[in-house]
User: What shape does this take?
Amino acid sequence: QVQLVESGGGLVQAGGSLRLSCAASGSVFSRNAVGWYRGPPGKQRELVADITSGFRTNYADSVKGRFTISRDNAKNTVYLQMNSVKPEDTAVYYCNADLYSAFKVRNYWGQGTQVTVSS
Assistant: This one.
């Protein structure tokens, strides 16, 4: 089954760190960018960061200097290192990517992982 599998969320104190992982299962990432988004379940999500196949990165202003997105193509995994987290970073974090499926490129969302930052 082709899917994105996220892990690494949890409860962390303000100022602490977390690392989220997004693994492509049953497929590989296409050449398009892979992104981390966040938002309440069922509502509009905001882009946190994305990374291209050429390792070019892009960040939301609210996380610049604190979060780092990276990828390991050999493991088909993208990471989001979250440092100096703030209570306003509390959200469900989702991974989004285009994966190869049945000889086509299709867009997938992960199931989401909850990040809660306590003050």
Summary: The longest strand covers residues 91-101. The radius of gyration is 14 Å. The mean pLDDT is 94.
